[in-house]
Amino acid sequence: MDNVALKKTANELRKDIIIETYNAKSGHPGGSLSAADILTYLYFEEMNVDPQKAKDPNRDRFVLSKGHAAPGLYAVLSLKGYIPSKDLKTLRHIDSYLQGHPDMKHTAGVDMSTGSLGQGISAAVGMALSAKVQKKDFRVYAMLGDGELQEGQVWEASMFAGSHGLDNLTVVVDNNNLQIDGSVKEICSPYPIDEKFKAFNFHVINIDAHDFDQIRAAFKEARETKGKPTAIIAKSVKGKGVSFMENAVGWHGKAPNEEQYKQAMAELEKNGEALA
Amino acid sequence: MTAAKIATRESYGNALVELYKKHNNIIVLDADLAAATKTGIFKKAVPDRHYDCGIAEANMMGIAAGISTTGLVPFVSTFAMFAAGRAFEQVRNSIGYPHLNVKIGATHAGISVGEDGATHQCNEDIALMRTIPGMVVINPSDDIEARAAVEAAYNYDGPVYMRFGRLAIPIINDKPSYKFEIGKGVVMRAGKDATIIATGLCVGASIEAAEKMAQKGLDVGVINIHTIKPIDKELVIEAAQKTGKIITVEEHSIIGGLGSAVCEVLSENCPTPVLRIGVNDCFGHSGPAVGLLHEFGLDAEGIDKKVSEYLK
Q: Is the ipTM of this complex over 0.95?
């Protein structure tokens, strides 16, 4: 996919995120929108995955360690063909398999059940270790929130990954600088994030999370890096693509009402038309 | 009962080596306690399938969860305190919720940890692990049962918590008819006056206590419940119906463990008076294991005394 096609796909993904959370009347639009471009790139360019062979043991794996961005993950899985797009409207409903946080047992394409912060990265490290032990060449990708970096388990997992030189592991930090209670920097600063991962023996790349040239170059560099895991620190905008959600802490875990839904969809429609 | 004594943690280490000979898709994880949990025995035999995660139990549980999704079967080991206690939420959310095929070998359970004292004596692990949906909880009573449990855990598809001890204990299951089946209790001794339902190292002590009571004219049966979850409801109910009085004995808090599990079964199916013998809602302390078991009334002498008084 060229950058225009990626942008169009990411815009569709953003629309789905708004549709999902509006119909759920709850959920996490802000951190899903900030992750939308990278999720798009991972599923449409980077990862060796095929919805027709969802359980292929040699497929690449993705672990959404920031599990609350489930609307973003479901949107990309739907666009990729794992789950029917009509099901997206059932997110969080009592009779739906689309849980508030990813459930690998009931949702095709979900490689790990996540939601309790700090735990997904450990599972990703386990998958990467297992690939090495079994001499398989699949790669493992984990996406973390920047607030999530406050969980000590993230650094236990990073220490292990760095110590064992798991170069088949790429960690992406969705660095939108906002968490529920306010700015990540003010609440308990994880900065400098890049220096911290470097100290744990990671190869580190800083990028703009919404620039596909930079995203493409970073994942290529990660694949070419030997002997070390890679951390991509992706500076993002929480709520990206919906003007009134951008950089607004209140949109971490709140669904749009009807009026906000219409406005958000209109903005995204317009954005899509501009790309056409 | 034979004179030989062996700690079930040692049985665990030996069983892993045997298991690998039959099933080379296992991998063993530890958290800087390989010498104590006895996974060191496996490490020596199969070094490239043993990974030390360092002192980071929460991460180790997550690593095991991830590994289990890729075709290997992880056996993950540390002390019960850290497996069930420190990493409870990781076990619940990363292993239990997705029902992953992870086997937890938790050693140094109960007060028989001994000298290390209360911080390391886990009397709450059965209670904690029992609350996780789909988790199998096994507490073997000797070397033979511990080794059989490891094999059974491998053959079961899903998460299993196995509880092992530090203290060397007698072998009590050395009969040709012995067969281990997850969820099936074992009648160790028949009796008419009451039934002791015991688990782990308390099974051997309970048999000894029943023998002492027999000399005083009390006919007390003993059932070994090695699988606390799923518990053998039929056997528990049958014992209650036959003898009318039940005593549970465990090296665990009387809250949430075997005693609670038995009471849950009986209160709903066959209300029966139950005396729970165990750690009475208190912490342990430092001392030799045998001395502590005596102090807490969990040796044959203590069990005999409490049960005899109860049956007066």
A: yes
